[in-house]
Hints:
By secondary structure, the chain is an alpha+beta fold. It has 2 domains: 178 residues, Peptidoglycan recognition protein-like (Lysozyme-like, 3-Layer(aba) Sandwich); 158 residues, no CATH class. It has 7 helices and 17 strands. The protein has an 8-stranded antiparallel β-sheet, with helices on one face. A 5-stranded mixed β-sheet has the order 5-4-6-3-7, covered by helices on one side. Helix 4 packs across helix 5. The two termini are 26 Å apart. The N terminus is likely disordered. Zinc ion (ZN) binds next to loops.
Amino acid sequence: MMRFLLPSILLFSSVLLVSGEEKVETIPQSVWSTGGTKPKSERMKKHTDGITSIVIHHTETPNQLPSSEVSRLINVQRYHIEDRGWGDIAYHYLIGPSGKIYEGRDWHYQGDSGTKYDLNGRLLVCMIGSFTDRLPEKEALISLIEFVAAKMQEHNVDSENLVTHRMVASTDCPGDMLQQWFDASGKDSMEKRYEGIKRHLAYYHTQDGIPDPTGGLYVHNENESPQAETLVVPEHFTSRPSMAVAPPLAETDDVLIDRRFRSPDRDCEFAVTIVKIGKLGTGEYDRLIAWRPMQKGEIETSTESIEKEDKVIQRFGITSRNGHYTRYFQRSYSLSKDEDALAILWEFMIYGPEAHEKWKQAYAEFKASLDLSKL
Ligand SMILES: [Zn+2]
């Protein structure tokens, strides 16, 4: 038996859970362009039939900002209105290196371009900077994926109409590096994220901060399994939504059990999630069931990790800073390549030491009641 401690960052910070229904935040032009050049609506025309396509651009301005993202935006807007003679900044949305998303031209109006292509029905999304020799900041790419996916859903844009500028006109825009990223994984990430939003799935970011191209899988309580019937749930406990995040799985029926229950006095919760992981790789991040990240004010109070034969078992505790509640987790996953190899997560959450005393026996019985041999 080998014992070792894992730093807490491995247990929690690697996974960032974002709700599938969260609105992507944008900064209105009225906020960033105070004192900027006023748009001239008489120079613009509306789309005739709504938005049917999304086109990705770069501003091709120096990556070194003049003083801020906003000052860059104001300069570009002034240039487009005063020098190019357009009605407003050419793009409908712009994403800065910080990942902030700015509203440009009112999207009901068609955009503008120095190149020839049909702008009717096109939503123009522009990355601030030049991406011929380098990629945008990680934060900017994450915002681009989230935002484009949300707009695909809002306007019902299909994937063949998600393009970059050079795919529809004669130009180098949005730069070779950004184009390569779009072709290699970016477009795929946006489509997967779009699928995820449609299915109300949450999303998780992998360790390097770039969204998982599978779109992640948020395990809902609706994934009921007859095997869960061996669980002994104390009387009057009520069902609660799950907070587990499964590894990327090919099919949702690989989720065998995903249950969470709350005691009638609301002082304790029991949860268990079990997924089949045999088809995945043997790396830790392929196999472990993750949790929502630690919340503000939560402290990790205990960590233990054990490797035993073909299994890794981790136990950890988290307490709120005011001691109001403690969550105990036990998570294990098999290293086996066997089709039926499992990952399991248990949680015992209690509000205060009295609740711990009151419910620990019931929790032990709850855990013992599950017949793993039936899975
Ligand atoms: Zn462009």
